[in-house]
Design a protein that fits this description.
InterPro entries: AAA+_ATPase (IPR003593), ATPase_dyneun-rel_AAA (IPR011704), CbbQ/NirQ/NorQ/GpvN (IPR050764), CobS_N_dom (IPR025865), P-loop_NTPase (IPR027417)
Oligomer: single chain
Protein name: Cobaltochelatase CobS subunit
Shape: globular
Strand content: 15-25%
Structural class: alpha/beta
Organism: Amycolatopsis marina
CATH architecture of the largest domain: 3-Layer(aba) Sandwich
Radius of gyration: 22 Å
Domain AAA+ ATPase: 57-203
Strand order of the largest sheet: 4-7-10-3-11
Helix content: 25-40%
Bound molecules: adenosine-5'-diphosphate, magnesium ion
CATH topology of the largest domain: Rossmann fold
Largest sheet: 5 strands, parallel
GO molecular function, one term: ATP binding
Mean pLDDT: 89
């Protein structure tokens, strides 16, 4: 990857359609780590301004919100428009400190086996003009959180203890994180493996932004942009009803009635599957219902009935044999 630096500025008003005079630095070239632009993407103004402050002013930004609200893609889509290289790391319980920092490995050098330090993703990113995104920040193991806390300090240096090296961050290194729960831990037992973020951990982030689900009209517009076959009056009514079902699952999730919710991603694949199977109920079963706990399928079937005015056939509420 190149060691380029930002070489021009873009106007937030023009590029993100947000009412702001802010201009932010951007790279001239797109390297392989720059995410693809999603033209149908809708930017939440507050979260986007927070992220832009992160890029422009080197603020550490944590984005929180329920599953599928667009936390990770918001960061990626901002980066995509600034041509800012971007790397995502999921902090789920499997990632260890050594995965992050690096470890000694035996390699072959001139026919000889030698032990060499192979740097992990953190030292790699830290020394480059890269936006590093920690996904599922609230699921990180304590040993991993300990390392991250230190780079969140003001000077952000990373000490590789075993290596006797201190790494300084590249001036265009940026750090972001996303979390389902901030400070609340595992609400209603819904986010397994999420730790309660303590005050000291949250306090190290300069900006904490919150993302909610899109307004129904906006979500419908996104679905339509992805599945243009559904253009027209009937298609629009269909999408509106699908988005209503999704909304009911999210309310049910918040209330603790459901353990699975329908994310915008699922609504999009449901809409695509309507085209594949030619029937909204069949597509619903295959895109969402089969992912739900059997004990909750009756509730989900009722949501469908409320939004479509037709029963979901009983057989759909049972697991489908493989
Ligand atoms: N504002 C938005 N505009 C367009 N698509 C969105 C938006 N928010 C979410 N999506 C879509 O919803 C899906 C889930 O988004 P993602 O960023 O993975 O959510 P999260 O990280 O909050 O779980 C993605 O496929 C994304 O394209
Ligand atoms: Mg995410």
């Amino acid at each position: 990857m190149s060691d380029a630096c930002p070489d021009h500025a873009v106007a937030v008003r023009d590029v993100f359609g947000i009412d702001s005079d802010l201009v932010v630095p951007a790279f001239g070239e797109r390297d392989e780590h720059v995410p693809e632009i999603d033209e149908a993407y809708r930017f939440d103004p507050d979260v986007t301004l927070a992220l832009l402050a992160g890029f422009a002013r080197n603020r550490r930004v944590l984005v929180q919100g329920l599953h599928g609200t667009g936390k990770s893609t918001h960061i990626e889509q901002v980066a995509a428009r600034l041509n800012w290289p971007c790397v995502r790391v999921n902090l789920d319980g499997h990632l260890s400190r050594l995965d992050l920092v690096g470890r000694d490995a035996v390699v072959l050098r001139d026919g000889q086996q030698v032990t060499e330090f192979q740097e992990g993703i953190l030292p790699w990113a830290l020394q480059r003009p890269v936006a590093l995104i920690f996904d599922e920040y609230d699921a990180g193991r304590p040993d991993v959180m300990f390392v991250i806390q230190r780079i969140l300090e003001r000077d952000g240096k990373l000490t590789l203890l075993d290596q006797h090296r201190v790494l300084r961050p590249h001036p265009y290194f940026r750090l972001f994180a996303t979390a389902n729960t901030v400070g609340l831990g595992n609400v209603n037992g819904l986010y397994h493996g999420s730790q309660r973020l303590n005050h000291a951990q949250i306090d190290r982030w300069n900006i904490v932004a919150s993302l909610n689900y899109l307004a129904p009209e906006e979500e419908a517009a996104i679905v339509l942009a992805r599945v243009p076959e559904l253009a027209g009056k009937r298609g629009s009514e269909l999408i509106a009803a699908m988005v209503r079902v999704a909304e009911l699952t999210r309310n049910g999730f918040r209330a603790g009635d459901l353990s699975t919710l329908m994310s915008p991603r699922t609504v999009i694949s449901w809409a695509e599957n309507v085209g594949v199977f030619g029937d909204v109920a069949v597509a619903f079963r295959l895109s969402f219902l089969n992912k739900c706990d059997e004990a909750e399928r009756q509730t989900v079937a009722e949501y469908f009935q409320r939004c479509f005015g037709r029963e979901l056939a009983e057989s759909y509420q049972q697991a489908v044999p493989a």
